[in-house]
Design a protein that fits this description.
four-stranded antiparallel sheet; 10 strands; ABC transporter transmembrane region fold; Rossmann fold; disordered N terminus; elongated; alpha/beta
């Protein structure tokens, strides 16, 4: 719960070190859109038609002025070109002077009908385009979330030891939601805006090049302002994404550890930490808003400047009866260009506002693709075969292991275990006990030496087939928010209800299950809330028994249960261990006494090995450990009926 700031610094350092390639990110987005190219083509077609309707509208308005509401004068057009220009600029009549007032009124009404129809058509097509893009965007977003979720399950445990769960959740929720908003709305408007700008510029140049150049004088300033402000906004939004990940991490840790927070009266410290993280998120968002909000008035001012140029130059030409660099103007042309400039400015402003959303989505996409690019530390070899049915012989040959470079946890460990043997592992906190049991199912890879099962290096077979034959019962049992039946069936999804109940009976869990409100169909709370520690442990044993593994890894967890539940767990474990190769991080003297071999670890090395009696007789490290941690408790066994404990095992990965 105190790792939020460290996590944020780590995220931001990655943001500063890794180069950001917007083009590469967009190309990777393109791979997700590729299966829906037909729908995208339809969206593009709809956008083109809708944009055409918007471009034709101003042209028809200009024709309405020149052809029906006014007549160009010879001073403006030149007497020799008056009739030809009138004919060319009007939408279907060839001789406007021969028409009566009623005919002109009828022609004007028809032209207005066309203009209204074009706007209605454009609105309908725009709505249809939004639907198509939303459909495509949601399908792409679904595929992206599934890829992230699958990749999270492929990543090694070491990745989760270094990265906060809340930040990973933020990438699936907040970042993907930002991408979805861009796909559904912003990206579409940006594309249509760019198309509209290009089309309007082309029409203006075709209609009157000198006047078009005057009208577009301010455009480079508007584009430059857009690029600069959007670049600053993108950097700011990337920071907000990282800050939001930190907030999620802080929330996840605080909520998960609420019991510990209340028990140690650390609520005020947690609130203060969250206040600082939340303030950092606020500052990052304010910085992003500063750039996005400053862009709109900047572009609006430049837009008014462009309108002033068009109106001023056009008005001067008309009133003075001059030409613009030899090019004649009419009132309709001036009105058309004023409308074009307004429409030209609008998509630039729209793009500037929505481009921040697109940049935000690109920043979110970068974070998601960064996660997808994480290479699992533990990977199967190409075409790795499945692990054959395990008999249970285990060998560790000169095994070394480390979680961080130059910080070895295990050093040249050698061990041979025959099928069916039980190995008890003891030692002080941080000696490497947990590391040994993590190497067997290949949660981590060795940095030196090899781990062999039945003579096969665990790195030469697929990890999934290996782990299917290894059962793990840990101290901290994780139960899902599902029924008791499904929590046990998690060990073997194909198991029938009868097999599940048989496993529960073997684990001595059937008695308390039948007392639950709905028996096996009782839905458990988060992490099995509502059950005692002992009951959760019995369900974990039942889950492992259902999987019927050939190798068992146990971290005995009976220190926090009552005497009766402890006996039930011990009986269940004895039955589960029978006939299987087992590795037990031993907390209790009974486990050590019954073990075929006891490994004594200290500082990453096996300093002693043998049976309990043999190790006591040597009066070495194990003897000192036993005398300091067992002897005082052993005297109380007869009086309280409980087994004494070894030193507690560290929860760290080096334990």
């Amino acid at each position: 719960m105190f790792g939020g700031q460290d996590g944020l610094r780590r995220i931001m350092s990655q943001e500063n070190i890794k180069p950001r390639n917007v083009g590469e990110t967009l190309i990777r987005f393109g791979h997700y859109f590729k299966p829906y190219w037909l729908m995208l083509a339809l969206a593009v077609l709809l956008i083109v038609i809708a944009t055409w309707a918007q471009v034709v509208g101003p042209e028809l308005i200009g024709q309405a002025v020149d052809c029906y509401l006014s007549q160009p004068t010879a001073a403006v057009l030149g007497a020799e070109n008056l009739d030809s220009n009138s004919a060319r600029n009007c939408w279907y009549e060839t001789d406007m002077s021969s028409l009566s007032s009623q005919q002109k009124l009828a022609g004007l009404g028809g032209l207005i009908g066309w203009i209204v129809g074009l706007y209605i058509l454009g609105s309908i097509l725009t709505g249809a385009t939004f639907y198509v893009m939303s459909w495509v965007g949601q399908h792409v977003l679904r595929a992206m979330r599934e890829d992230v979720f699958q990749h999270l399950h492929r990543l090694s445990l070491g990745y989760y030891a270094e990265n906060e769960v809340g930040d990973l959740m933020s990438r699936i929720t907040n970042d993907s939601e930002t991408i979805g908003q861009a796909f559904n709305f912003a990206l579409l408007n940006v594309f249509s805006g760019v198309l509209l700008i290009g089309w309007i510029a082309y029409n203006m140049l075709v209609k009157n090049v000198p006047y078009a150049l005057v009208s577009l004088t301010v455009a480079p300033l508007m584009i430059g302002a857009t690029l600069w402000f959007s670049d600053q906004a993108r950097k700011a939004f990337r920071r907000t994404r990282a800050e939001m990940g930190s907030i999620n991490a802080e929330l996840q840790e605080s909520i998960s550890a609420v019991r510990e927070v209340q028990a140690f009266n650390r609520a005020e410290e947690n609130i203060e930490n969250f206040r600082q993280t939340n303030a950092a998120n606020r500052d990052a968002n304010i910085r992003a808003v500063v750039f996005t909000s400053a862009l709109s008035p900047t572009l609006e001012a430049l837009g008014y400047l462009a309108l002033a140029l068009v109106a001023g130059v056009g008005g001067w030409v008309l009133l003075a009866g001059e030409t613009l660099f030899g090019s004649a103007l009419s009132l309709g042309v001036v009105i058309t260009f004023l409308t074009y400039v307004q429409r030209f400015n609008h998509p630039i402003q729209q793009i500037s506002m929505l481009w921040a959303n697109v940049q935000n989505a690109v920043a979110g996409g970068e974070r998601i693709f960064d996660l997808l690019d994480e290479v699992p530390q533990v990977q199967d070899q190409a075409d790795a075969p499945p692990m054959p049915p395990i008999r249970g012989r285990v060998e560790l040959i000169n095994v070394s292991a480390a979680y961080k470079p130059d910080e070895p946890v295990l050093k040249n460990v050698n061990l041979t275990v025959e099928p069916g043997q039980t190995i008890a592992i003891v030692g002080p906190t941080g000696a490497g006990k947990t590391t040994i049991i993590n190497l067997l199912p290949r949660f981590y890879d060795v940095t030196g030496g090899a781990v062999l099962i039945d003579g096969i290096d665990v790195r030469d077979v697929s990890a999934a087939s290996l782990r299917q034959q290894i059962g793990v019962v840990l101290q901290d049992t994780f139960l899902f928010s599902d029924t008791v039946m499904e929590n046990i069936r998690f060990g073997r999804p194909s198991a029938s209800d009868e097999e599940v109940m048989a496993a529960a009976k073997l684990a001595r869990a059937d008695e308390f299950i039948e007392r639950l409100p709905a028996g096996y169909q009782t839905v458990l709370g988060e992490r099995g809330s509502g059950l005692s520690q002992g009951q959760r442990q019995l369900l974990a044993i039942a889950r492992t028994a259902l999987a019927n593994p050939r190798i068992l890894i146990l971290d005995e967890a009976t220190s926090s249960v009552d005497t009766r539940t402890e006996r039930l767990i011990q009986t269940a474990l004895d039955e589960l261990l029978h006939g299987r190769t087992s590795f037990v991080i031993a907390h209790r003297l009974s486990t050590i006494r019954n073990a075929d071999q006891v490994l004594v670890l200290n500082q990453g090395e096996i300093v002693e090995r043998g049976t309990h009696a043999e190790l006591l007789a040597r009066q070495g490290f194990y003897y000192d450990l036993y005398m300091s941690q067992f002897r005082q408790q052993e005297d109380g066994v007869a009086s309280n009926g409980r087994q004494p404990h070894l030193a507690p095992v560290s929860a760290s990965s080096g334990g």
